[in-house]
Design goal:
Layout: H1 2-15, H2 19-39, H3 46-70, H4 77-86, H5 92-101, E1 103-107, E2 111-113, E3 120-126, E4 129-133, E5 138-141, E6 146-147, H6 149-154, E7 159-164, E8 168-174, H7 175-182, H8 186-205
Antiparallel strand pairs: 1-8, 2-7, 3-6, 3-8, 4-5, 4-7
Helix pairs in contact: 1-2, 2-3
Length: about 210
């Protein structure tokens, strides 16, 4: 009887579309197999018990990971505003990943050279910047503007001098870290390409 219950549970796990149900049914099926190998033979079949115990542990680990991933994610007002402006199309989990590999920075009112953004991608979260381009044109940047997207594509900066009329706040990522993450996240990559497109347009029309 136990062998039939186990196989029915495994069969049902193949039929469900929800991965959580698949994992849970596989776990229950594994316990039924353990019962079968323990009670239906003259001697306990340890090889079957050990293999199914391993399968149960793997599925339990995956269930725990799914529960963790599906927990509601809480963002503060600043983080929610930045997501809405810069990355509205990505999931909350992907936005949390970007926040974890990024860094919030504050720059005091002053004039700087573009070297402060070397190897860095930046999105303004508060304040305004005036950027002078190498071709002597200039661009005023506000909240949600990207700096470093062109450098991300070409390896060269298009900015020469940067001035802040007030203290500014930004979310910054190391280009190498950002590139590694985006390679496996097509939706994040698509959203970032939109920001790069906006930066290119600003640079050309300035």
């Amino acid at each position: 009887m136990l062998i039939h219950i186990a196989n029915i549970l495994i069969l049902l796990s193949f039929l469900v579309k929800e991965i959580m149900y698949l994992r849970l049914l596989s776990i229950f099926g594994g316990f039924a197999f353990i019962g079968y190998f323990s009670l239906n033979f003259d001697s306990v079949q340890w090889s079957g018990i050990l293999w199914n115990s391993l399968f149960i542990l793997i599925n339990l680990y995956q269930v725990i990971q799914l529960i963790i991933e599906r927990r509601p994610i809480k963002f503060n007002e600043r983080e929610l505003q930045m997501k809405k402006i810069a990355f509205p199309d990505i999931s909350d989990r992907e936005w949390l990943d970007l926040l974890n590999i990024g860094e919030w920075k504050t720059i005091a009112k002053s004039n700087y050279t573009s070297s402060i953004f070397t190897d860095t991608i930046v999105i303004l979260s508060d304040g305004n910047l005036k950027c002078s381009h190498i071709n002597r044109t200039s661009t005023n940047l506000s909240v949600g503007s990207l700096i470093g997207g062109i450098c991300y594509l070409t390896g060269e900066t298009v900015y020469e001098d940067i001035s802040c009329s007030s203290d500014i706040e930004m979310l910054a990522w190391n280009i190498s870290d950002f590139r590694v993450y985006v390679q496996s996240k097509p939706q994040v990559s698509a959203s970032f390409q939109k920001l790069i497109g906006q930066e290119i347009v600003r640079q050309r029309v300035s």
